[in-house]
Inverse folding.
C-alpha cells in the first residue's frame, strides 16, 4: 500500500511537470503511466465512486503540485537568463506534436469542411492574437482574474486529448511569472491558478466530452488551428546582441524541442 502511494506520487510529479512545459501534454504523461482513462472517467463523472477516486488521486495530485514547483526552479532560471533560446525550445516542443495532433484530429474522418474549419480558426487566431498582443503591449495584465484564466488553460491539457495549452500562457507573457510564483510559493498566483483548474474541470469536462461525441473532427480541427496560431505568435522576432553561437543555440534547442514533442506524442499514442 505504501509503495503504491509513493509510486502514484512519483507519477504525479512527472504529470505536473508536463502541465507547465509547452508542447508536453500532462494528458500524454498520464497516458504513459496508465492512468489517463481513469482521470477522464473521474472528471466526466466526479460523483461516481467519489471517495475511492479521491483516495486514489490524492498522491497523484500532491505529486503534481510538487513536480510543478520543482520543475519551476529550472524553468525560471532558464527563462531569466536564456529567454529567446528557450522560446525556440518551446516552439520546437509544440511543432513536434503537430503530426500527432493532425492524426488525432482526423481519426474520425477529415473532409473539406474540417480543412476549412482548421484554416479559418488558424487565420482568425492569428488576427485575434495579433490584435490582443497590440492591445496588451506584449503582456497581459497579471491579476487574480487572469491567473484564473491561466489555470483554466492548464487544466484543458488534461481534458482535451494531446493538447498542451501552456503556449497560450507564454503568449500572454505570464509564463515566467507563473514559474517564479510556483518556485517561491506565491499563493497570489498559485491560488487563482488552482481555482481556474477546478473551474475548467467543472465547466468544460462534460461539455467537451459531449461536443467531442457529437462533432469530434470539427471541434478538434478548430482547436488545433488556434494552437498553431498561438505557436506562430510566440516565435521570437527580436535577437538583441546575438552572435553566431546564439543563433546556433536557437536552432539546436528548436531541434531538441521538436524531438521531445514528437517522442512524447509517440509515447502517448502507444500507451493511451
Amino acid at each position: 500500500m505504501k509503495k503504491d502511494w509513493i509510486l502514484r506520487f512519483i507519477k504525479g510529479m512527472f504529470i505536473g511537470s508536463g502541465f507547465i512545459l509547452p508542447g508536453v501534454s500532462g494528458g500524454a504523461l498520464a497516458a504513459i503511466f496508465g492512468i489517463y482513462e481513469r482521470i477522464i472517467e473521474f472528471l466526466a463523472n466526479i460523483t461516481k465512486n467519489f471517495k475511492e477516486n479521491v483516495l486514489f488521486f490524492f498522491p497523484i495530485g500532491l505529486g503534481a503540485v510538487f513536480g510543478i514547483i520543482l520543475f519551476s526552479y529550472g524553468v525560471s532560471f532558464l527563462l531569466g537568463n536564456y529567454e529567446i533560446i528557450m522560446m525556440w525550445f518551446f516552439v520546437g516542443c509544440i511543432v513536434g506534436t503537430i503530426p500527432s495532433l493532425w492524426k488525432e484530429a482526423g481519426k474520425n474522418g477529415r473532409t473539406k469542411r474540417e480543412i476549412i474549419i482548421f484554416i479559418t480558426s488558424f487565420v482568425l487566431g492569428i488576427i485575434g492574437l495579433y490584435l490582443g498582443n497590440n492591445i496588451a503591449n506584449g503582456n497581459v495584465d497579471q491579476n487574480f482574474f487572469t491567473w484564473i484564466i491561466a489555470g483554466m488553460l492548464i487544466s484543458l491539457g488534461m481534458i482535451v486529448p494531446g493538447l498542451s495549452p501552456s503556449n497560450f500562457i507564454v503568449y500572454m507573457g505570464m509564463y515566467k511569472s507563473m514559474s517564479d510564483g510556483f518556485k517561491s510559493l506565491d499563493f497570489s498566483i498559485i491560488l487563482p491558478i488552482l481555482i481556474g483548474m477546478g473551474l475548467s474541470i467543472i465547466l468544460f469536462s462534460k461539455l467537451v466530452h459531449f461536443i467531442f461525441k457529437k462533432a469530434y473532427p470539427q471541434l478538434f480541427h478548430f482547436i488545433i488551428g488556434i494552437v498553431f496560431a498561438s505557436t506562430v505568435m510566440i516565435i521570437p522576432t527580436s535577437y538583441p546582441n546575438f552572435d553566431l553561437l546564439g543563433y546556433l543555440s536557437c536552432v539546436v534547442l528548436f531541434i531538441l524541442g521538436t524531438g521531445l514533442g514528437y517522442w512524447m506524442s509517440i509515447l502517448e499514442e502507444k500507451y493511451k
